[in-house]
Amino acid sequence: MDFIDYYKVLEIDSKASQADIKKAYRKLARKLHPDLNPNDAEAQRKFQQINEANEVLSDPEKRKKYDTYGKDWEHADAFEEAKRNQRSSSGGGGRRYTSSENYGQQDFSDFFESMFGGGGFNTGGRSTAQFKGQDLNASLSLKLSQVLEDQKQTLDLGAKKIRITIPAGVEDGQTIKISGYGGAGVNGGPKGDLYLTFQVLNDTAFQRVGSDLYMTQTVDLYTALLGGEIKINTLTGKVKLTLKPETQNDVKVKLKGKGMPVYKKKNVFGDLYVTYKVEMPTKLSDEEKTLFTQLSQLRN
Amino acid sequence: MEKENLILVSHYCQQTRTSLEFIETLKDYGFIQVLLIEEHNYVQPQDIVEIERVNRLQEELGINLEGIDALNHMLRKVDHLEKELKMLKDRLRIYEQ
C-alpha cells in the first residue's frame, strides 16, 4: 500500500485554499468524468483518485489528519490512540473522528481506507441527494472462432451470476453496457452499470479488419501460369476457387459473404479477401532446367 | 406500440423525484423520445439511461443542456474516429507483416 499525494493528484500546492481545491477538483472532474470518457479505464481510475483526494482535502478534519501524518499514515491510528489516552487521563474531552459511512461503494484506495475507514462521500450537506451507483468494468476473453454465432455466457459477479448473450461478430476491444449491474445506488439512487469489454483472441489463420477477413494463399507456379482449381479453408468450410491462366503474384480476390458476421445484423457477413502468393519451384532437376531454359529462349 | 417494455414518465418522475418539466425539456432538445400512448407519456428503457446521464453531467459538472448537446455531438465524433483508427491500424498491420 503506497502513500498517495492528494495534492499532487489535484495538481495543487499543499497550502491551497478550499476555493483552490474546489476549483482544481471541478477542473479535473470535467476532464476525467466517466460520462465524458466512455470505455476509458485509465480516465475512470484517475477520476476515482481525484474524488478520493477531494473527499479528504475538502473536509478540514480529514485534511488536518492527512497533513499531520502524511507519509506516516501507517502510524496514524497509533498516534490517535495515544492522543486519546493522553486527553482522557488529563480529563480533557477528546475529539473523536467519526468514520464516514460507506455510501456510494466508491472504490477508494487502500491508503484512504487505512486512514479514514470505509470509503465514500461524507454526508455533509448532501445527505438527501441520490446518486447513481458506481459503474463497474469487466473484461471477457473470447476466441475469434467463438464469435461466429451468438454466445450465451454466465458472468460471475461475485455476489451473483448473470446470463448474457453476446451477439455474433463482437469486436476486439468492444464494450457493451449491461444496465443496472453496477454498484448499489446511494440514498435510494439507481444502481450503476456494468461495462463489459471483450478481448477477442484470434485463433484462426485469418486476419480480421472489422467484419472482413484477410488471408494469403500459396499457389504453385504451374497453376498460376496455366490456371486451375484450388481449395481454400474459410471459417465456414472449404471453398473451391478457380484461378485464371497467368494469375499474377499478389492478386487479391474477394469472396463475398465469407467474412465475419456483422455485429447485430442477422445473416449479414463481411467478405474474405484472398491474396495469392505464387510459390517458385526449388531443387530443379536437369530436365526441368533444360525445359525452363527452352522456355526462356522462347521468350527472348 | 407495445407498452410492456416502456416506462411511464409520471411513475419515473415520482420514484426518482424528477420534475416533469425536466423530461419535457430533454424531449425538446432531442435527447430522448417521449411516446404518447392512450393519453399517457412513456419513455423507452434506454432513454432512462440518457436522462440519468444528462442529469449527472448537469449536477456533477455544471454543464447546461446546450453544452451537453454539443458534447454528445463531439462524443459521437470521437467514437467514430476511434473506430476508424482501430480499423486503419488493423489494416496497416496486414501490410506491415
Give a nutshell description of this structure.
Chain A is α+β, with helices and mostly antiparallel strands. Chain A has helices spanning 6-9, 18-32, 41-57, 60-69, 76-89, 110-116, 221-226, 286-299; strands at residues 136-143, 151-156, 161-166, 175-178, 194-201, 207-209, 212-220, 228-234, 237-243, 252-255, 272-279. In chain A, the strands form four sheets. Chain A has a four-stranded mixed beta sheet with strand order 6-7-11-10.
Describe what this molecule looks like in 3D.
The complex is a heterodimer of chains A (300) and B (97). Chain A has 300 residues and is α+β, with helices and mostly antiparallel strands. Chain A has 3 domains: 6-116, Helix Hairpins; 136-201, Urease metallochaperone UreE, N-terminal domain (HSP40/DNAj peptide-binding domain, Sandwich); 207-283, HSP40/DNAj peptide-binding domain (Sandwich). Chain A has 8 helices and 11 strands. Chain A has helices spanning 6-9, 18-32, 41-57, 60-69, 76-89, 110-116, 221-226, 286-299; strands at 136-143, 151-156, 161-166, 175-178, 194-201, 207-209, 212-220, 228-234, 237-243, 252-255, 272-279. In chain A, β2 and β3 (161-166) form a beta hairpin. The longest helix of chain A is centred in the first third of the chain and has 17 residues, at 41-57. Chain A is elongated, with a radius of gyration of 32 Å. With 97 residues, chain B is mainly alpha-helical. Chain B has helices at 9-16, 20-29, 45-61, 65-96; strands at residues 7-8, 35-37, 40-43. Chain B has a 3-stranded antiparallel beta sheet. In chain B, a hairpin with a 2-residue loop joins β2 (35-37) and β3 (40-43). The radius of gyration of chain B is 18 Å and the shape is elongated. Chain A binds chain B through residues 26, 29-30, 33, 35-36, 38, 130, 132, 173, 177, 179, 190, 193, 207-210, 214, and chain B through 16-17, 45, 49, 52-53, 56-57, 60-62, 71, 75, 79, 86-87, 90-91, 93-94.
